[in-house]
Structures are given as C-alpha cells and as structure tokens.
Amino acid sequence: MSDSLQEVYHIREMRLEDVRRIILIEREIFLFPWTEMNFADSITAGYYCRVIELNDLLIGYGIMMIGPDEAHILTIGISAQWQHQGWGRRLLQYFIDLARQQQSVAVLLDVRVSNGVAANLYRQLGFEQIAIRKGYYPAMGGREDALVMRLKL
Ligand SMILES: CC(C)(COP(=O)(O)OP(=O)(O)OC[C@H]1O[C@@H](n2cnc3c(N)ncnc32)[C@H](O)[C@@H]1OP(=O)(O)O)[C@@H](O)C(=O)NCCC(=O)NCCS
Predict the structure, then answer these.
(1) DSSP 87-146
(2) Measuring from each residue's beta carbon to the nearest atom of ligand 1, which residues come in under 6 Å?
(3) Which of ligand 1's atoms lies nearest the C-alpha of 29?
(4) 106-112/70-78 β-pairing
(5) What's the CA-to-centroid distance between 83 and ligand 1, angstroms?
(6) Considering only Cβ atoms within 10 Å of each terminal Cβ, which end of the chain, N or C, has fewer?
(7) Domain that holds residue 42
(8) Pick from 141, 118, 144, 143: which is nearest to 129 by CA?
(9) What is the DSSP letter of 35?
C-alpha cells in the first residue's frame, strides 16, 4: 500500500446515518448479517462503534464493548472489494490501542472455526485461542462452533 493511501484513511465514530451503508457491506460479507437494529442499538448503548473511511468512502466498521476488566470485539468487517489490503488489521489495531487506553486487561472475541482469514489475522496480532463455544453460531444446515480468542494487554 502506498504512503499516499495511508494518509487519506481515518477511523471515526459510527453514526446512525452510517447504518444504511454498513448494512449493505454486512449483507455482502456475512452469511448471517446483523440487522440495522443491531447496529443502531450498539450505537445507542454507547459501545465503541467505529468506521474506517478511505477518501470519505466507508469501507469497514467494528464494534467493541468495554467491561470492567476486558474488552470484547463484537463485530468487525471490511467491504469485500477492500479486503486483504491491510484495512482489517488497522481497524483491529485501533481497537486494541483503545482498549489499552481504557485500562482493559485483555481483548476477547469469537470467531467461526471456518473463518481462517479472520483467525489468522487475530493470531498475527497476538490473540490466542482460550476456548471453544460449541454450536455458538447459526450455519447452513445446522450450527457452527466458535473459537474464543484473547489478547492479553
Ligand atoms: C476478517 C477481515 C475483517 C480482515 O480484514 P482484511 O482487511 O481483509 O484483512 P487484512 O488485509 O488486514 O489482512 C490481515 C491478515 O489477515 C490474513 N489474511 C488476509 N487475507 C487472507 C487470505 N486470503 N488467506 C489467509 N489469511 C489471510 C493474513 O494473516 C493477513 O496478514 P498479511 O497481510 O500479513 O498476510 C475481513 O476479511 C472481513 O471483513 N471478512 C468478512 C467478515 C469477517 O469474517 N469478519 C470477522 C468476523 S470474526
């Protein structure tokens, strides 16, 4: 990625008016997408809802909830045409830094066992698998296990 591209991206708070665009991306990249209400509720609840923009185009988003000790990344997504270019890593690193600033001791997230791309990324950033939640996710024709991953801060 060129330096000029790096200069024009930014991460900002998600607003209710972003949700329509987010939902389009969400439906494109997840088989079982969140609803507009899920995103709107997360904003209203005061979770750390962020979007990543490139030249004012919203290309990705993520949501993190911070509890008394641990932070939980609830979702993260990058628009299909912008994937595999380092944007997911940047957004994830932003959330990790934010959790550290808020004195969290760890960041936790769940990932489908079949989602090797995401799990690779999390491992590269230092996340370790700490548990498996059996049948946690809906899946085509049944349920799918989740890996619970944790990054100690
Ligand atoms: C998972 C996701 C957020 C990652 O964002 P991204 O911008 O595509 O990822 P990046 O370009 O930052 O890639 C970072 C790392 O992911 C891994 N990765 C990326 N593409 C990969 C591929 N095709 N195969 C295997 N690993 C891959 C690599 O470890 C990569 O590191 P590298 O660039 O040093 O090789 C994004 O792909 C996405 O939105 N996927 C669909 C939704 C989803 O699965 N969300 C996560 C739910 S837990």
Answers:
(1) HHHHHHHHHHHHHHHTT-SEEEEEEETT-HHHHHHHHHTT-EEEEEEEEEEEETTEEEEE
(2) 29-30, 76-78, 83-89, 111, 115-118, 120-121, 124
(3) 41
(4) parallel
(5) 7
(6) N
(7) 3-152
(8) 118
(9) P
Encode pLDDT of 41-94 as tens digits. 999 999 999 999 999 899 999 999 999 999 999 999 999 999 999 999 999 999
Distance between start and end Cα atoms, the chain: 28
CATH number at residue 21: 3.40.630.30
For 96-107, what is each residue's pLDDT tens digit?
Answer: 999 999 999 999
* Identity at 69, one-letter amino acid code: D
Considering its fold, how many domains does the chain have in total? 1
Helix (H) and strand (E) counts for the chain? 5, 7
Distance CA 73, CA 75 (A): 6
